[in-house]
Design a protein that fits this description.
about 450 residues; Rossmann fold; four-stranded antiparallel β-sheet; alpha/beta; 16 helices; globular; Arc Repressor Mutant, subunit A
């Protein structure tokens, strides 16, 4: 049994900079001015040599800073650089080739290391999607290449999109996922990981999560947990909570920071309006080019390692350019959440020379998502049916029974009982009233066409 460590002392870390060693960016003070820094860590096999001449091999992490500094990761090493990270890393092995990482550090210390041109790297990544995929819209190749590069810079942005691959069977969704698995930053495929583990892994490696064949997204218990993950993971402040069993078999509420880009591939689509407002959609269709269709993605092919080598160099050398470009993006006509989900893609598109192409698709995608949300919004459905009813019957008092007969037939699950209908009406701002008819007192609502139109306009925004 290992000897318990003895605490020798404590100190506050207010003078330290919080970072995530897997991928992060910060400014550090140096001689009266700030210097930009980036940090990445990569999973490595480490050989340990002991005093009895025995050896052991364990998974470890190599941490590299943009100034060429590198070290075998430990919290002590971070502290020596006035940095801290309070959680635990969980990194995949060999996403950046060790020899190339060491060459980068050597070159950085000696001068300017080799760094790929972002537009040339964009073209190379786009070329891989073009080689394997037969998309029916050219803009999809541009979008996927921008998304891959963006995945290495996403902590520079406050929000991350959900990329939806939507199509029938055998339309290339899984192959697209494989290409992202080969090139995106620290991806994890949820098909190969349990629900309990996925939250830890996203936090521990700043992973891009790939949800392939996610048909149970809205129905199963696992689907509900993943939906919560998607909702929370949209914002840099996103956090989700889970009950975790401790070593003493006691349950404790744990928080997980799950901010990262997500990819959802399925046939059924996404029905939740809150998720649709965060979606960038690609509709997949069957390939006409049978040669492309027959090509499979071999994740062990050395070409993927070479592309990732370039991407890691790019993030350590060009993060300031990406940050500055983000701050001076051309006017897109989008705002609020619509702009926030596209901001990262827009930034890479500007640097890659495809701004106009991506902007045109962003506007098209935004309007399509808005239209679907309007059509699917249960509040809007109820208001539309109320408007139709009152236009036909006239302004005035309408009993609960009359409204129930109208709404229950057309809104399905939105009004499954008179009580639920009453809750929905109250939420829409309608106040229930009473009317005495002979010896009976009827409950209902005073409704007018003008009143309903005013409320309906609010849901058209």
């Amino acid at each position: 049994m290992a000897k318990k460590k003895e605490i020798l002392g404590t100190e506050m870390v207010s003078g330290y900079t919080p970072i995530h060693p897997a991928l992060d960016f910060w400014e550090e003070g140096k001689r009266g001015h700030n210097v930009d820094r980036a940090i990445v860590s990569i999973g490595q096999q480490v050989k340990y040599i002991y005093d009895d001449e025995s050896v052991d091999f364990k998974d470890g992490e190599l941490t590299i800073i943009s100034n060429g500094d590198y070290f075998l990761y430990s919290k002590k090493q971070l502290a020596e650089r006035n940095l801290y990270y309070s959680r635990e890393l969980d990194l995949p092995l060999s996403r950046w080739q060790h020899d190339d990482a060491m060459n980068f550090c050597k070159e950085r210390k000696e001068g300017a290391p080799a760094c790929p041109d972002i537009s040339e790297l964009y073209q190379q990544i786009r070329g891989e999607f073009l080689y394997y995929m037969d998309f029916d819209h050219d803009v999809y190749y541009d979008l996927m290449a921008c998304f891959v590069i963006y995945s290495y810079f996403y902590p520079l942005f406050n929000n991350a999109p959900i990329l939806q691959l939507w199509g029938n069977l055998k339309t290339g969704k899984s192959k697209t996922i494989s290409l992202l698995d080969a090139m995106a930053f620290n991806p994890i495929n949820s098909a190969n990981i349990s629900e309990a583990t996925v939250f830890r892994v996203i936090e521990g490696r700043r992973a891009v999560i790939l949800l392939d064949e996610s048909e149970d997204l809205m129905t199963s218990e696992r689907g509900k947990a993943i939906s919560n993950l998607l909702l929370a993971g949209y914002s840099v402040f996103g956090e989700t909570f889970r009950q975790e069993k401790s070593h003493q078999d006691r349950y404790k509420t744990m928080s997980f920071r799950v901010f990262s880009p997500k990819v959802v591939a399925n046939i059924e689509g996404v029905s939740m309006a809150a998720l649709k407002s965060r979606i960038i959609r690609i509709v997949t269709t069957g390939a006409l080019d049978k040669i492309k269709s027959s090509r499979s993605v071999n994740l062990s092919d050395p070409k993927w390692r070479e592309i990732r080598n370039k991407l890691y160099r790019l993030v350590l050398m060009r993060f300031a350019v990406v940050r500055d470009t983000k701050q001076r993006l051309p006017d897109s006509g989008l705002s609020g959440r619509d702009l926030s989900i596209w901001e990262g893609i827009f930034t890479i598109a500007c640097l890659s020379g495809v701004w106009k192409t991506i902007l045109e698709y962003a506007i098209e995608n935004t309007e399509a998502m808005r239209q679907e949300m309007r059509e699917d919004d249960p509040n809007r459905i109820i208001l539309s049916e109320l408007l139709s009813y009152v236009t036909d019957k006239g302004d005035g008092f309408h009993s609960v029974g009359q409204l129930w007969n109208k709404l229950s037939a057309v809104t399905e699950t939105e009004t499954t009982s008179k009580h639920i209908m009453g809750v929905a009406m109250t939420r829409l701002g309608f106040i229930r009233s009473q009317k005495k008819v002979e010896h009976n007192v009827l409950r209902g609502y005073l409704l007018s066409e003008e009143q309903i139109l005013e409320r309906l306009k609010r849901y058209e925004q």
